[in-house]
Amino acid sequence: MLQGGMVRAVSAESASRPPESSHPFGTIPPIWLRAEPLPGGARRHALPLAFKLQLFSSGRAVALEIGGADPEAVIRLDILAADGRVVGTSRVSGRFAAVFLPRGAAAIRSEGGGEVRLGVFPRSKIGLKLHAFLRGAFPAQSAHRRWRTAAAEARDLRGMHATLIEASPAREGEQAVRYRRYRSRHVEDFGSPVPPRTDLHLTFIGRLEGAAADAAARLAALERQTDADWSWIAILPAAADPALAAFANDTLVRHPKVRLLITDAPPAASINAALAEVADGLVACLPDAGLPLRDAVAMLRATFAAHPDCRLAYTDEERLGPEGEPVGGLFKPAFNRHLLRAGDYLGDLVAIRSRVVADLGGLRPDFGAAARYDLLLRALETGPSTTVRHIPRVAFSAPERARDCGAPPDPVQAARALEAALGTPVEIAAAGRLRAHARVPQPPPLVSIVIPTRDRADLLGTALRSLIALTSYRAFEIVIVDNGSVEPQTFALFEETKAAWPDTRIVRDDGSFNYPRICNAGVAEARGSILCLLNNDIEIVDPGWLDEMVGLVVEPRTGIVGAKLLFPDRTTQHAGVVVGLFRYAAHWFVHAAADVPGPFARLVCRNNVSAVTGACLMIRRACWDTIGPLDAVRFAEDCNDIDLCLRARRAGFEVVFTPYAQLIHHESASRGRKRSRSHRNRLKAQRQRMEDLWGTDTLVDPHYNPNLSRTSLHAALAAAPEGPRHARTDEI
User: Fold this and answer.
1) Average pLDDT over residues 57-76
2) Hey, what's the signal peptide range on this chain (predicted)?
């Protein structure tokens, strides 16, 4: 079980488990930089030789510890080259910060905060582990034990550094360096185009906006395509800029692949007029900002040729900085229904069969700037997800813009479109993202909350009392599965709970510890049409958590729903599971601040995932009965929740993560690491069974991306693709 199970179960591997409560920042000191005073109160801090050598070829972000400064002071840090030139500037405050050190950096000049000390940490896994072994403040122990302690502490500290860097501006500089290196080898490298075919001819439709130079750039980008089976219907507004109109009438009108449509109709109506001229094939909007890369047409046409059932395809993209330089990629998940409901994550380059658009009646002008979003919702809410293909290749390049985080261009109109598609009220959440109201059936269905436990009345009491006192959804029963409790406090708590919530039952299980078997015993006694597996170390803090989860799990496509779990310090413990990370599965963005949006705002809006933790897992009884119970034979302690979710996905059920149900997960933040050799061997064997059964050693989660690292908890770009880049669906 991944980061789940009742407190007695110790089951998470280091890659997916949060750090211990003993803070590694305190046990592993930094490498303090040699400092010298400068005129005016500034100080110059020399970087160690090892760091300067690493920065010789490319820049990188580093974690800093700041000593001797007022915690409230804002300190200016100028990054200096060897000749004293300023090659970067950051402003930081507090004890810890992340900064980007450009290529050639040799020192840091600090101003403000007094006699500031700066310390840096090695970034590499082995470097930080060795540093921890040599300098860590650990109790006296043998060299072997010290190495193991240093390895565990360094692993946690490295995760904290990654979270620190991810949430800082330093990430942008490092991301740009990494992306440009990746781009030189793995962008615009698609193979040969398919032969021309009428039903695969790609027609771009785009309004001419802006300057004549922009229109010329769009034409040049199309002319550079490696696949020439394209055409462009260019829409010229009647009131266009004279220079733009002159270019259109002098150049575009004479181009053999361009049809010029002059109209004074508004955008959606003019695009419909252009669509009427497309008899067959594929259509794609050509935005006024951004350009298709040279193999865009080839990969889109090849996708529809290889998959005759494909109705729509979209690609990854890149973003450009102020000077037009590539600064990062937008690496998307495969079709993600709930993410689309939060905003138009599909992006700029989307191709769709013309007959699909015709069947839908084209764009609806009443939705204004959200007319395309409305069309996508109508096309994708009703059809099977397997008819949507994501091409995990960068095929479109555009300047950075605010809505890249997942918000639609016109949230008000987009909310109207989503309301029309779902028939339910929609609110505009933070940053313009959409949240459709989860509808709870009337009368509300009974939810059976199954809580396995053995003693630990302190934790279980918090879970039960907060559940009963705070949960606004009252149609639930409590099924406590007692795996051999012996402490009087536990039995007193059982009686207290039954008095406070009469619909409570205690199921006794005196067998050896086997988490799936214990949960299955509780489910066998449950009466509800909805089941909720809940750890005994969970605390309810959100009264609407159960309403939210029930409203999602009753949707016909949904089988399983998971909640957002926070550590007691209110950082993220669970926001969905990425299967295939570290050859198994992991919670991404562990210990990120609760409001960090993540890629496409997926940490703060509902979205489909491949798995969720069993610490709070809701499943429809119909799904449970279809896929079978938790596997108590192969996965007695570990992997059982991930296996259950993957079986649900393979059976055609969706698994959904929601951040609108937030709970506190207590024990995982302080759980001990000590395991016997036999316990470690059992966990290893269960991971191997998971690998054999699901191929997690090579699996790329459809809701992840093969261009992203399978050894990163923060969706870092891989040095090279780590999985196939052919067009894919959301299937496991």
Assistant:
1) 90
2) none
